[in-house]
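Title: Prediction job returns without error message
Component: structure pipeline
Severity: low
Priority: P3
Assignee: unassigned

Description:
Job completed but the reporter wants confirmation the result is attached to the right record. Sequence as submitted:
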Amino acid sequence: MLKILKQGEARLNVIEYEGVVFLRVSHGGFNLSEVAPHIDAMYIETTDEDVINGLVSKVRESNKVSEYLMPVFASSIAMKPALETVVDGFVRNMDFFQAARQTREIQERIGQIKYSEVGDENYDDYVLKTLSFLFSRNQALMPFRKRNSSTGYAYPFLCNLDHADGFSQLEYINTAVQDGLLNTTLVDKVNHCPHCSDTFLHFRESCSSCGSIDLKYEDLIHHFKCAHVAPLSDFVQGDKLCCPKCDNELRHIGIDYDKPSEITVCNTCNHQSQETNMTVHCMGCGKESSLSELNTHDVNSFEITEKGIVRAINGKKTQVITKHKQVSSNVIEWDLFKLYLRQETKRAQLSGSPAAMVSIRLNAEALWELSTHESGVLQHEVLNILSSYIRPTDLVAARNIFDYQIIVTMGSTEYVEELKHVVEVNLIKLIKDNLQIESCSVEVFSEELGGNANMAIV
């Protein structure tokens, strides 16, 4: 059921459809923070593309999650290719069924986000806004062709976020790719000027002798009878073609002659050649370049990763303490660890002396948010803790940031059980203190080496 209501002193139009409330606007004369708590989505009723972009920007520029992630729809009478990636959808003939369904889906995903506001000062804030938008829409960040963009493409959400253009628009996004928050898919490749980075380029042929672009093109004529080859103009005599070498008339192509190729004649220096130079004239800065001087830029779509989803839901990444001491000598590389494990297993089987392998698994969603550098720092700290609680004859290695294993040589059952307890308590404390989180778990279990035991290497 569709209800059209009036709300507040400003007499804002509010459309309610099956419990979903749409703010009906055609201009920006309203306070978003005042109306946002009372609506679920926005419906823009105008055909003016600039007004639509302005209203969407007004929403996306907000720092409040409930506002910048708000679903925005436009009337189908304004449907244009350039707007299809700006708004969440179009409403046809005041039928809000699809818009209401889409709004409920978006609001359900927004409800999973654990923070209410972001800043607008740095990389983390910019990327968090982008990640939360992609998560709430369950879609990729797609480029669309934009003639007045210096790169020839633009990303609507980013345009509405900060009004940046060109390669600067993707500075933070490319960093997010390096941090594992986004994946890329190649959409196109564009050439751009080496002087100003503009992609509005004019490709033109020029004389290989003097560089002039004033060229004309002629067919080459090959006379079968005498094998003479020359430009067409050399054969023209009035309205006939006559060979300048043997004076015979050429009547029929394919019988008397053919046209094997084309020749370029420069109107400036009269140089004739079958090869020309290709030059590039930038319509942005006006400078000339050769093809080899052009820079090439990949145009990608960006899809949020599992790590990016965790960041989108939980908020800003936490910092890991970077101060650490040197890892001891009983910390070894993973491949070497597997070799020692096989040797220790055989030794235990032959000697019958006790030996065990202790496996540790860290469970914390915040670990997925760490950059490559931060993961390395945390892994170093974990290895420091593990090495400080084992004997010099024991060995420890990290398979990845989550999984660690210890070879306990000549260790009693009591020693192994005590080691497991100490490791669990101290690693939980390390993760909670360094990542500033309240909930995490550490799984620690052991396996006897030798006998019929299996090596738990995965």
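Comment from assignee: result matches the submitted record. Residues 218 and 233 are 8 Å apart (CA to CA).
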